[in-house]
From TrEMBL, chain A:
It comes from the Bacteria. The lineage of its organism: Bacteria, Pseudomonadati, Pseudomonadota, Alphaproteobacteria, Acetobacterales. Residues 6-256 form the ABC transporter domain. Pfam families: ABC_tran, oligo_HPY. This is ABC transporter ATP-binding protein. SUPFAM superfamilies: P-loop containing nucleoside triphosphate hydrolases (SSF52540). It comes from Roseomonas nitratireducens. InterPro entries: AAA+_ATPase, ABC_Ni/Peptide_Import, ABC_transporter-like_ATP-bd, ABC_transporter-like_CS, Oligopep_ABC_C, P-loop_NTPase.
TrEMBL record, chain B:
It holds the Pfam family OppC_N. The chain crosses the membrane at residues 35-57, 107-134, 274-295. Belongs to the binding-protein-dependent transport system permease family. It is a multi-pass membrane protein. Keywords: Cell membrane, Membrane, Transmembrane, Transmembrane helix, Transport. Residues 105-295 form the ABC transmembrane type-1 domain. It comes from the Bacteria. It comes from Roseomonas nitratireducens. It is found in: Cell membrane. This is ABC transporter permease.
Automatic annotation (TrEMBL), chain C:
It comes from the Bacteria. It is a multi-pass membrane protein. The lineage of its organism: Bacteria, Pseudomonadati, Pseudomonadota, Alphaproteobacteria, Acetobacterales. The chain crosses the membrane at residues 12-31, 100-121, 133-157, 177-198, 242-269, 289-311. Keywords: Cell membrane, Membrane, Transmembrane, Transmembrane helix, Transport. This is ABC transporter permease. It comes from Roseomonas nitratireducens. InterPro entries: BPD_transp_1_N, MetI-like, MetI-like_sf. It is found in: Cell membrane. It holds the Pfam family BPD_transp_1. Residues 94-307 form the ABC transmembrane type-1 domain.
């Protein structure tokens, strides 16, 4: 198989706060092949966004990458200089943010914000850059791009703004796009349109995608692989169809159980009891222990990521092996 | 007070597992800023000097019998006819500047703290009233506050002193009129939030008298922001009084505050006799900065939004 | 909008009227104007004639109406000291004050913005901490004392700058301005810096707070994620967002700058309105005091009105921007 677009190995991103070290990302490893979509799933605070920002090198102090490797086409992004990283950002690796209302600068026109991106990585005239911006806007389905280029962000709807943000990400046809919950803030219908659009673009351009979300139904329709994060660690990963059909980790099972549409009408909604633990002062052992229906004596120790079925890895001493049983 | 700060400065961060009274926590949080503790110590020292000035000053600068015109405009460090050294020099009347500053501090602190206290009582009462009574009362009081705050303090003070003329009492009145609006606005803001809380409703259900609800229930909960504003306003009042006195509109020549001392030295400065203006200015500066340092830290500690 | 405008205008008019009563009663009702107006050598008959001529025997409300009537015709009385119309005296001094105030505001932006920007971008750098400590000093230090220190250092010790007065002036629009000559600029430097001190601190704080707030915005992170150079992120994405509010606030401070020039003008003997009012208060030149107070009240009410109207006009756009859609 060809070299993967991205290979993250034992990534650790920690925040060194005055109250102590917050291990936001702790020993995370995954691989994204060319043209594939990885769904990175977890609750808020599970470290999935920080993973995304670590890859693109935008972790703000007091956070920093404390260990591990981020191999982008063989180059370790955790080791390269800020200047090298900047030449990759927005160029070979792009990112789309969660809230389209906040990602575009309110006092700059759309053309300014697109042209500056083009010219940050390619020497070209304003007119060429504008042409590129116009083409890309058309690609993401924005009608009359010429007019739109002269507008300010507040003249756009949320869905339109997210399309503009996606267009900006696509300007340099990157190898990897990190999408941090880009559809969460949008209406369901707009969400569907954007998902379809992105899927199509990824397929035609061979771009790899990391799709960060807490919404399993989005992952189910979009991703090839899935990695489930809990308390800064990946607890389960594998192909989407297999993981969603036969989850191995009790947490994954719980997540699937909490999706309303998967429950039978009239049945009480399943839920995961309790709350995500604070990443500061995480107790030893399995982090999910206190909320896990299967927790037992061995869970007092730290579980390791193990391959227990072909192509399936899980971080659990008592996985739901081979059964369709779900956490009650 | 100084005892508490000494104790508080020793342990680093407060541990959560230890049981602390709110006051202890307040003290230890305050002590987290070394510079604020320094400010508090300096200010305490200044206040002590001001209070005990008649006993510790080498000279009573307003007892003409003790002054010798021959000692006039002596440089710092010279020894005068009376046999003691003028560490900070003398003014044109042969007054020891150090004694003058100690006495001047008395007037400055008295005017500053006094006006802040009166303004606090007036402003806080009106603010409470506005928040509790609401409707017309609120509108009238807050309109007045808005109107007054739209004019700079110096202008309001200038206007009032133009009407009233010089004098310590008049300066205090002017400062009170300038400052009350800040207290009223602060207290009203907090009180509006607090009065929606359940405990006020409970007190009202018990049919407690209004003044009791206002002063025993509502006011204590508005205290933290009030204390912060009061601290800052004392510093502002002292600075404003000094400015007014410098302009010749403030305290009379017989009771010189720091501002007037500085004004007296103004004409001598151009001939290089800097100390007559310089040292009172330094005293004023240290006083104001130390109060502001304490106030800054108080704001950080007492502001619930900044709590970690 | 029109309704709002009319209502605000009526309100402003009412405030002006109320202030005129306060000023008139305040200045004229306290103390005995006869004492100051008439020479102590004058005999009884001369006194009475003067009292009648000045209308001082009329009841206070009547005097006020006369004052108001005259004021509406632009007559705010004659200065006892200069024996000239008070209004004319003040208007003569106004350019000097305005020049000083604008100079100070210009300096506050020129010095405050870069310092605030630096302190906001590197909040933990030693230089930033020094800048912030300096801004606390700028807020705490009494303006007049700083003025004295400036004179002591730059005029007396170093002899670089003149200590008092306006220096040579040049003519523009039929008025005399100091900023048109080198000598005038040299005279203006210290007073303008002195008056700017407080505003510099204000601009530093506003800019720093704005930068720190803006730096946390998603659009700044997005701009970085686009691979823009740090300079472009700072000077285009961050700076443009904070520039508008900072400049607006400084503009709003014009009124208070003019009011505080009273202090600076006294320190540097700058012949503006502020110096005039202090001198007038000290010699109880009441018509000038009244005229000054009325003019400055009018000025403030106008500024406040303009501010309110500007905000209400900006409001729909602001609302549109924050709510989107």
């Amino acid at each position: 198989m060809a070299e993967p677009t991205l290979e993250v190995r034992n990534l650790r991103t920690h925040f060194f706060t005055r109250a102590g070290v917050v291990k936001a990302v702790d020993d995370v490893s995954f691989t994204v092949e060319r043209g594939k979509v990885l769904g990175l799933v977890g609750e808020s605070g599970s470290g999935k966004s920080v993973t995304g920002f670590s890859i693109i090198g935008l972790v703000d102090p007091p956070g920093r990458i404390a260990g591990g490797q981020i191999l982008f086409k063989g180059r370790d992004l955790a080791r390269i200089s800020e200047e090298e990283m900047r030449s990759l950002r927005g160029n070979r690796i792009a990112m789309i943010f969660q809230d389209p209302m906040m990602t575009l600068n309110p006092v700059l026109r759309i053309d300014t914000q697109m042209i500056e991106t083009v010219q940050a990585h390619r020497k070209c005239s304003n007119e060429e850059a504008r042409q590129r911006a116009r083409d890309t806007l058309g690609m993401v389905g924005i009608p009359s791009p010429d007019e739109r280029l002269k507008s300010y962000p507040h003249q756009f709807s949320g869905g339109m703004r997210q399309r503009v943000a996606i267009a900006i990400a696509l300007l340099h046809e990157p190898e990897l796009i990190i999408a941090d919950e880009p559809t969460t803030a949008l209406d369901v219908t707009i969400q569907g349109q954007i998902l379809a659009e992105v899927q199509k673009l990824a397929a035609t351009t061979g771009t790899s995608l990391i799709w960060i979300t807490h919404d399993l139904s989005v992952v189910a329709g979009l991703a090839d692989d899935i990695a489930v994060m809990y308390a800064g660690r990946i607890v389960e990963k594998g192909a989407v169809s297999e993981v969603l059909d036969t989850p191995l980790h009790p947490y994954t099972a719980g997540l699937i159980g909490s999706v309303p549409s998967r429950n039978k009408r009239g049945e009480p909604l399943r839920q995961i009891p309790g709350m995500t633990p604070s990443l500061l002062n995480l107790p030893p052992g399995c982090a999910f222990r206190s909320r896990c229906p299967r927790a037992a004596e061995p869970c007092m120790a730290e579980p390791a990521m193990e391959q227990i079925l072909p192509g399936r890895e899980v971080r659990c001493f008592l996985p739901l092996t081979g059964t369709t049983e779900q956490a009650a | 007070m100084s005892d508490a700060t000494v104790n508080g400065a020793a342990p680093p961060a407060p541990r959560k597992d230890k049981v602390e009274t709110p006051f202890q926590r307040f003290v230890s949080e305050f002590a987290e800023s070394k510079i604020a503790v320094g400010g508090l110590i300096v200010f305490t020292a200044i206040a002590l000097v001001a209070i005990f000035a008649p006993w510790i000053a080498p000279q009573d600068p307003y007892d003409l019998a003790q002054l010798d015109i021959m000692d006039g405009r002596q440089e710092p460090g010279t020894t005068g006819g009376a046999g003691f050294t003028f560490w900070l020099g003398t003014d044109d009347q042969g007054r020891d500047m150090m004694s003058g500053i100690m006495y001047g501090l008395r007037i400055s602190l008295m005017v500053g703290a006094g006006s802040a206290l009166i303004a606090c009582v007036v402003g806080a009462s009106l603010g409470l009233l506005a928040a509790y009574a609401g409707k017309k009362t609120d509108t009238v009081i807050m309109r007045l506050v808005d109107l007054q705050l739209s004019f700079p303090s110096i202008l309001v003070a200038l206007m009032i002193l133009a009407f009233l003329g010089k004098g310590i009492m008049n300066v205090v009145i002017a400062l009170v009129i300038v400052e009350w609006a800040y207290y009223a606005r602060t207290v009203r803001g907090t009180a509006l939030v607090e009065r929606r809380r359940e405990y006020i409703e409970a007190a009202q259900c018990l049919a407690l008298p209004t003044y009791r609800i206002l002063f025993r229930h509502l006011l204590p909960n508005c205290l933290p922001p009030l204390i912060v504003v009061a601290t800052m306003q004392v510093a502002r009042a002292i600075a404003l009084e000094a400015t007014l006195s410098f302009l010749g509109l403030g305290v009379p020549i017989t009771e010189p505050s720091l501002g007037l001392l500085i004004a007296n030295g103004y004409e001598y400065m151009l001939s290089g006799k800097y100390w007559i203006s310089f040292y009172p200015g330094i005293a004023l500066l240290i006083t104001i900065v130390s109060i502001n340092l304490v106030g800054d830290q108080l704001r950080d500690v007492l502001n619930p939004r900044l709590k970690k | 909008m029109t309704v709002y405008l009319v209502r605000r205008l009526i309100q402003a008019l009412f405030v002006v009227l109320a202030m005129s009563v306060i000023v008139f009663v305040g200045v004229f009702a306290i103390g005995d104007p006869v004492e100051i107006l008439i020479s102590p050598d004058a005999d009884q008959i001369e006194r009475e004639r003067a009292v009648q001529a000045l209308g001082l025997d009329l009841p206070l409300w009547h005097q006020y109406l006369v004052f108001l009537g005259n004021a509406l015709q632009g007559d705010l009385g004659r200065s006892f000291v200069f024996n000239e119309p008070a209004l004319k005296l003040i208007l003569q001094r106004m350019p000097a004050t305005l020049e000083l105030a604008f100079g100070a505001m210009f300096l506050s932006i020129l010095i405050g913005l870069p310092l605030g920007l630096y302190a906001g971008l590197r909040p933990n750098a030693p230089a930033s901490k020094a800048i912030m400590a300096g801004s606390i000093l700028g807020f705490s230090l009494p303006t007049f004392w700083v003025g004295l220190m400036l004179i002591m250092v730059f005029a007396v010790q170093l002899g670089w700058l003149p200590s008092t007065g306006r220096g040579d002036t040049g003519a523009l629009f039929g008025l005399q301005w100091s900023f048109l000559t080198v000598d005038g600029l040299a005279h203006m430097a210290m007073p303008a810096l002195n008056l700017a001190l407080f505003k510099i601190s204000l601009v530093i704080r506003l800019t720093r707070a704005g930068v720190r707030e803006t730096m946390l915005m998603d659009y700044v992170k997005f701009a970085r994620a686009k691979g823009l150079s740090p300079a472009r992120v700072t000077f285009v994405h961050v700076f443009k967002n904070i520039l508008i509010p900072v400049v607006t606030v400084v503009g709003l401070e014009l009124g208070s700058t003019i009011a505080f020039s009273v202090v600076t003008e006294s320190v540097f003997a700058w012949p503006g309105m502020g110096k005039l009012i202090i001198d007038s208060i000290n010699v109880l030149d009441r018509p000038v005091i009244v005229a000054y107070l009325m003019i400055i009240v009018l000025m403030f009410i106008t500024i406040n009105l303009i501010v309110d109207l500007t905000y209400s006009m900006l409001d729909p756009r602001v609302r549109l921007e924050t709510k989107g859609t």
